[in-house]
Structures are given as C-alpha cells and as structure tokens.
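quick one before i forget lol
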Amino acid sequence: MNLSLACATLAASLSSVFAAPSTAQESAPPFRLPEVRGGTGAAPVERVLHVTYDVQNDRVRIARPASLGELALGSQPCFDNSQINFPDDPQYVVANSGEDVLNWGSKLCPGASRLRSFTIAYRSTAIDVSQGGPGAAFSLALYTGTTGFGQPGTEVFRRTFTGMPADGAPAGPTVQYGFIDNSEPMVFFTVDFGTEPLPLSDGAFGWSFLQLDGDTGPVLVVAPKRLLGTFDALDIYSPGPATPARYVGTFNYSGSPPANMWIQLDEIANNEVARTTVQNGSGVNPILLSEIFPARIGHVWAARINATVPGIHSPPYTLLLTSAAAAGPLASPYGEVLIDAAQLLRRPQLGEAGYTFAIPAETSLVGFRFFVQGVVLPPAASAAVRLTNALNVRIGY
C-alpha cells in the first residue's frame, strides 16, 4: 500500500474513532508512533514549575515553583485544553527527532482576537543547565485555519527554545527551585507577548510541538472535547516544521492515552484595545482634529488638525491641548470648549497641524484615557481663533 493510500485509510478509520472513542483503530499507521512516557505512577511528579518566556526580550522572565492544580495561570484562559488523565504522573509524548506533532481545535473567545499569552505543559528527561546539561529544547508554533489531517493552516507564530528547565542531574536526587526529587518535572510554559499581543482570529486554529532533543515532550490531555473542537488525534510532519508537503499521517493511541496536547490561550479584552472616539458637543465646532496612529503602549500616538487658510500655502499654526478629563460643552467666542482646562496633562503644544508623542511601553497604562482638543490660530490678528472637535483617546494594545 502506498503512503497516500495508507494515510487515506488511516484518516477514514480515525473518523470512526472520533464518532465512537472506544473503538480501536482499524489499521496501523505506516510510521513509528511517538513514544508515550509517564502515566505509570512509578515516578510521580514531585516538582512543578511555571516558566514565563518574554517574547519581546527573548528570554525567560520568571521561573518559579507551581502546583499541578494551577491551571488558570495569571488569568482565566479563554481556551482551556488542560484536563490531564493522570495528574500525579502526567503522560507526555516524545516524537522522533525533527518531527512536528500538531493538534487542532476551534477557538471561540470573547476578547479582541489577540493573544496576551499562551501556555503549554511539558516534561523532560534532559539534563538541566544548572547541572551542566543542555536543558530542554523544542520549537512551538501556532496556526490559524487548521483543520488537521494534513491541513496545518497558516503559521502565525513560531519560536525555538533551548536551555529550558529539565530533569536535573544525570543520576540521583536533584535540588532545584527549592525541590528535592529524582523525577522529571512538570513545566507550565507560558509564552508572553508583552506589549505586542499576537493576532489570532476565532475559529479553526492549531498548535504544534517540534521535537529537538529526544527527551522533551508535551503533556497529553483528555480528548475529544466537543466545546473546544478537539479530536483524539495528532498530525505528524517529518521533518518539521509542519507544512502540507511534509505531512506523514494522523494517528492516535486508540483512546489510551488520548492523542491531544495541553494548551491554554489568554486573550486581551476588547476594552484593552487602543481606541479613539470623536467628541463635538452640540456640533458647532468644525471637525478638524483626527487621529493618525492609535495610542498603543510602546508606540507613537499621532494626530493632525486639518486646517487650511485660503492664500496661505503652508499650514497655519495650531495648538493641541491635552487634558485628563472632558468638559462642557462650554460656550466661548471661539467655539465650544470640550476638555477640562484645569486638568491639562502637558503644556499646550504649538505646531503646524501635526502632533506626535510616545506612549511608554507600560502595561499599567492600558485603559488610561486622555482628551485632546485643537485650536486653529489665525494668520492675521484680525482673523478669528477656531476651536476644533475633541478626541477621547484610550491607551491600549
């Protein structure tokens, strides 16, 4: 039987497996299955770590002791695929060197379709860096539009990690992070996108774990889960990374253990996205002030006053007023005052219609609002000053 026919036969048999999870596979896959480790109770987990990896600075930011029950890491995940079969001795899968194993599901999150972070769980028998070893090594990827069975979708993120926390010493008990034990740890590994959340739309998506050291593998979880759109199945690509051309086949372990990998997604809320709205009181002021770039943390906010004067080729002088609060509308000879002049955040900025300032890369600023209003100065003393509309600006991602 050729490979394509074997894969088609396997896919057909898996369809029946998903319909009735207790049914065994009808045909053996034409490749060597990744090895399942753990689940025997012979080496129960005595050490649990939570590692947070800072994508923007490309380094581990936090490595601390944790517990197996600590599943909502920092905030409630919007996609939670974390039900472990054997909590005391979680099973994990170690693929052949260079192979990429891929899962898929259906994301339906109430947020802004941008990931603050995602978390996977792994175990490793590699020698830890602290004990003179290389540590754990693996590559993680996320995809959109993944439907499985050789259709990985579009890769939206990939990062390779080396020197990550692992088993410890070549032999005997180890002392690390305050624990003394002689079993491979359970590691919750959070990939944190910092001030640049990763766009990931709702619907079909996938996640993969590429084997690099022969000692490290993702923790397996219960599947299928109808609400998550997960299957008792893993796609395998050899060599990785996963592309349709490198698809080898789809497999499971006939229900024990389930062929599905631990993952949680944490998405930013809609009210954490940078957003600006126009405010114009009773409507007497001309709509001249508009935003060019949103007020995203770590970026430059930009706005302009679209003011022109007949016969003057260069823009007229303008002022931008920035306040911590809105006001009014308060009538004046120049139009309506729409911001609170008693709460100015900075001195009025004189310019020629264009304005910029940097938003610090501080997550504490997310949700903070400021209000701006423009003033068009006349080219001659006899002309009238004009107040523009105001902007209600929310700092966010």
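fyi The first helix runs from residue 3 to 19.
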